[in-house]
Amino acid sequence: MILDINEIQKILPHRPPFLLVDRIVEMEPGKRIVGIKNVTMNEPFFVGHFPNYPVMPGVLIIEAMAQTGGVLALHGGAIGADKLVLFAAIEEAKFRRPVVPGDQLRLELEVLQRHTTFARMKGRALVAGKVAAEAILICKIAERGK
């Protein structure tokens, strides 16, 4: 299963510059997903993080993982287009190496638990096959606008 940026925008409410997943390259509905984020020097956060040594903020790497997990949670409309996926908790977050312009993040998430109103997923962000960050993400599935 492959989703391009246009299909992702039909699922997620995020928009540039805060949409942090460019493509979905693998998906087993309800089980696992793999997304891609191409990191470029044009990212607005590199202006101040850090001048002369651009590094993608760790919280945005985690957000990219969460958005990828959100696609998995909402894909196919089984939950409904009127739903949002919101952070409830982040556990065991670890940052292993810096992510810099020119890197391509491979965002891998697998569902650990799934219920009607929440999901718990294990995520990893890799660059060239090496782990840049990892965490367990817990999200709440909520009504949009409530």
Please indicate the percent range of residues in DSSP E strands (runs of 2 or more). Answer: 35-45%
Low-confidence stretches: none
CATH architecture: Roll
> Would you count the extended β strands for me?
6
CATH fold assignment: Thiol Ester Dehydrase, Chain A
Helix/strand order, N-terminal first:
HEEHEEEE
Distance between the termini: 31 Å
Task: Describe the strand arrangement of the main beta sheet, using strand numbers.
Answer: 1-2-4-5-6-3
| C-alpha geometry | globular
Total of domains: 1
Q: With helices defined by DSSP (H or I, 4 residues minimum), what is the helix count?
A: 2
Broad structural category: alpha+beta
Oligomer: single chain
The CATH class, by name, is Alpha Beta
The helical percent reads: 10-25%
Largest sheet data: 6 strands, antiparallel
- Global Rg: 15 Å
The CATH superfamily name is Hotdog Thioesterase
Mean pLDDT: 94
Describe this structure in words.
This protein is about 15% helix and about 40% strand. The protein is of the alpha+beta class and about 150 residues long. The protein has a 6-stranded antiparallel β-sheet, covered by helices on one side. A hairpin with a 3-residue loop joins strand 4 (about 105-115) and strand 5 (about 120-125). The model has no long low-confidence stretch (mean pLDDT about 95).
